Amino acid sequence: MRRFVAWAALILVVLLAAAVVVDRVLHARAETEVAKQLTSFMEVDGEPDVTIDGFPFLTQVAAGTMTSVRASAAGVVAEGTQLDDVKVHARGVALTQPITAGRLEVTGTLPDAEIQRLVDERHGDLGLAVSTHTEGVTLRATLLGMPLEVLAEPTVAGQSIQVRVVRLTLGGQEVDAGALAPLLGSTPLSFDLAVPNLPQGLAVDGVRAQDGGVRLTLAGEDVVLG
């Protein structure tokens, strides 16, 4: 009897070990497949790192919902717009079509070079040079032979990011932006940065200036992923 119990216990251990191996193999394959899907609909800088949280994985598949999926990439290009240091966290991902995340959070940095490109598209005639730091976005140019410096602050405005003038100096003296309207023909130093089309249910949730760019946070409930 003891020998039978011992053999039964051994067999159970082997089966459990095999089940764990199968679970981990399928888990790894699923992470690879998610990474492939990410690179199929956007240009990714390098290989995205994907982690499917939770153990065992097979019970999540059987339930039709993945509890938590995380992904990160050094950079992505979406509709021609570059974002750096991108991190994605999807919770409650339903595996039925359409694939939907109960909660999705995305963060990424719009780098100075990208902001410069967007500024040049709108106000290239002003020759504005962009640099970003924790205080805000600084725009520099020369006007009437004097150095012009504008400090602007990014804020959320629907599906766009508004960059609004906080302080303006001309020749080292602080002036009102409206006073320059006769010289510029308008007041174009405040502008919007459009965000690429987002998946249904996802919206701009936060924005802050940091050294080298503007950090965006996108979030939403019941976001359709595909």
What does this structure look like?
With 226 residues, the chain is an alpha+beta fold. It has two domains: 2-104, no CATH class; 113-194. The chain contains four helices and 13 strands. The chain has helices spanning 2-41, 57-63, 112-123, 181-184, and strands at 43-45, 49-52, 65-78, 81-94, 100-111, 129-133, 136-143, 146-157, 160-170, 173-174, 191-194, 203-210, 213-224. The strands form two sheets. Strands 1, 2, 3, 4, 5, 12 and 13 form a seven-stranded antiparallel sheet that branches. Strands 6, 7, 8, 9, 10 and 11 form a six-stranded antiparallel sheet that branches. Mean pLDDT is 75; it is low at 1-20.
The N- to C-terminal Cα distance equals 56 Å
Going by helix content, strand content and strand pairing, the class is alpha+beta
* Range of strand content: over 45%
Tell the overall outline. Answer: elongated
Helix-strand topology string? HEEHEEEHEEEEEHEEE
Count the DSSP helices: 4
The pLDDT mean sits at 75
Unreliable parts: 1-20
Rg, alpha carbons = 25 Å
Number of strands: 13
Quickly count the domains: 2
* Helical content (DSSP H or I, runs of 4+): 25-40%
> Multimeric state of these chains?
single chain
Main sheet specs: 7 strands, antiparallel
